[in-house]
C-alpha cells in the first residue's frame, strides 16, 4: 500500500512539473512586453526560412497576404546599414475590418503587421503589436471575441517558426 501511494505521488509530481514547464514555455513564447504592446516570439530557424514558413502558413489558412517590405534592403539602398528586418502585412478583411468599424482610427493598426528582425546575437524574432493593447489604444470594448481570434491566429502563424 505504501509503495502504491508513493508511486502515485511521484506520478502526480511529475505531471505537475510537466504542466508547469509547458505553461511556462507557452507564456514566454508570445507575450506582450510590459506596457508597450509588443509581442515577441523567438524563431528557431534563420530569417529566410522564417519568412517562408510564415507566408506558407498565412496562405494555408486562406489569409490575404498584402505586402513584404525588406527594410534592411531599403536601408542599404539609402546607404544605411541595418540588421535583417522584414515587415509582413496580411489580414482577413472580414475579421480586421470589424476593428475599423468600431473605431476608424484602428485602421492605423490593420491589417496585421508582423516584423521579422535579427538581433545583435543573430537570433531571429517575430514581433507584432498585442491585440489587447490595440483594443485599449483605440478604446474598442465591444470586439473581445474578434481580438481573441486575431491573437490566436497570429500565435498559430508564429508557432511555425518556434521549432526547427
Report a brief summary of the structure.
The chain is an alpha+beta fold and 164 residues long. 50% of the residues lie in helices and 21% in strands. About 15% of the residues have low confidence.
Account of the 3D structure:
- By secondary structure, the protein is of the alpha+beta class.
- It has 6 helices and 6 strands.
- It has helices at residues 2-29, 47-60, 71-77, 93-102, 131-137, 144-159, and strands at 31-33, 38-42, 64-70, 85-91, 112-118, 124-129.
- Strands 1-2-6-5-4-3 form a 6-stranded antiparallel sheet.
- A hairpin with a 5-residue loop joins strand 5 (112-118) and strand 6.
- The longest helix is centred in the N-terminal third of the chain and has 28 residues, at 2-29.
- The radius of gyration is 20 Å and the shape is globular.
